[in-house]
Amino acid sequence: MTITAAAPRHRDAILLGILLMLVGDFMFALNDALGKWLVGSYGVGQVLFLRSLAGVAVILPMVLKAGPTSVLRLERPRLQVARAVLSTAEIVLFYAAVASLPLAYVMTIYLSAPIWVAALSPLMLGEAVGWRRWSAIVVGFGGVIVALQPSADTFSLATLLALAGSLAFALMIILSRQLRATPDVAIVFWQTVGALAAGIVLVPFDWAPASGRDIALMGLLGVVALLAHLLINRSLKLAPAAAVAPIQYTLLVWAVVFGYFIFGDVPQLSTAVGAAIIVAAGLFIFERQKKKGTLTKETVKTPPG
Fold first, then answer.
1. How far apart are the C-alpha atoms of 114 and 120, rounded to whole Å?
2. Gap between the Cα atoms of 19 and 241, Å rounded
3. First-to-last CA distance in the chain?
4. Which residues of the chain have pLDDT under 70?
5. 51 CB contacts (<8 Å, ≥6 apart)?
6. What is the DSSP secondary structure assignment for residue 75, as one 8-state letter?
7. Is 188 helix (H, G, I), strand (E, B) or coil?
8. Could you tell me the pTM of the whole model?
9. How far is the C-alpha of 117 from the C-alpha of 119, rounded, in Å?
10. Confidence (pLDDT) at 184
11. Could you say which of 87, 106, 127, 268 would form a disulfide bridge with 191 (CB–CB 3.0 to 4.6 Å)?
């Protein structure tokens, strides 16, 4: 009787986890679109500073509730610092790239991160990667090349920034997998503090007068991103990573929708084809990781941007 009753509750928990992941990814995509709109008028440092300031203000009550030791007693402090640096770098690089590139184009490049992770796992995590995943890695990077359509006319500094951001995002994921014992509140707190510190350094160089509305929108970036983090973390407590990992690719769908309706961006055929190849390769890698037992929540808990 108990087992029979538990099965529907388990299914309900998984469905709720999937729903929370969908909402969390939508909020991240909305956050990315709003960030692109703001960096069109303001410097990356200014946006990063006000976004992070609002994020710290929101997360501080959670830290106080959990107790200061939850963020002060950390495993492997050097890796914590490295992760915070990489997290900040990928945000800065994302904003710098979308300032002049279509949102869907940049998101396509960033969603190649799972392919980077699979390629770097043997070196950084000591994981064995078989020929099937190596084949998917090669195909996935082929998709990146198709999406980039590299030539003297199409390649730009912004494209290089997006590529560097996707690599920073992948390295952050790998470090997250090495810091599994760290409480979520500590991970998000130091990630936000790191971004705030970078914002403090950068803001004197590109501060511009802003309306009260735009200042509020920059602060909203931090609140939305933090709420999205919490939703995704909760999702991964309710549903297995294998069930929700593919959902992160809805970020690309939202990037196309927001890019078209807000910025008038129509994805090029090369971007669409490259994105399809990257998604197919990523899903295959996720499936192989699930079978090998190496797919973890850290792989999917922090969408880009």
1. 10
2. 13
3. 46
4. 1-10, 151-154, 301
5. 35, 195, 199, 218, 219, 221, 222, 225
6. S
7. helix
8. 0.88
9. 5
10. 81
11. 87
The token duo for 248 is 């992160």
| Confidence (pLDDT) at 38 | 95
Residue with tokens 């690309």: 252
| Phi, psi angles (nearest 5°) of residue 285 | -65, -45
Find all residues with CB under 8 Å of 21, minimum gap 6, and list them: 231, 232, 235, 236, 239, 244, 247, 248, 300
For residue 192, what are the contacts with CB-CB under 8 A and spacing of at least 6?
Answer: 52, 55, 56, 59, 222, 226
pLDDT at 139: 94
Question: If we measure between CA atoms, which residue out of 238, 251, 240, 235 comes closest to residue 27?
Answer: 251
Report residue 84 as tokens.
């915070």
* Helix (H) or strand (E) segment spanning residue 49: helix 44-66
> b/e map of 130-150 (b: 16 or more CB within 10 Å)?
eeebeebbebbbebbebbbbe
Nearest-5° Cα angle at 121, 117 to 125: 130
Q: Quick one: tokens of 254? A: 């939202």
Contact 128/118 with Cβ under 8 angstroms? no
User: CA triplet 260, 265, 266: central angle to 5 degrees?
Assistant: 90
Phi, psi at 302, each rounded to 5°: -130, 90
* 106, two tokens: 């940049």
**Alpha-carbon dihedral sign for residues 32, 36, 38, 42:** positive
Task: Please state the domain extents for the chain.
Answer: 15-299
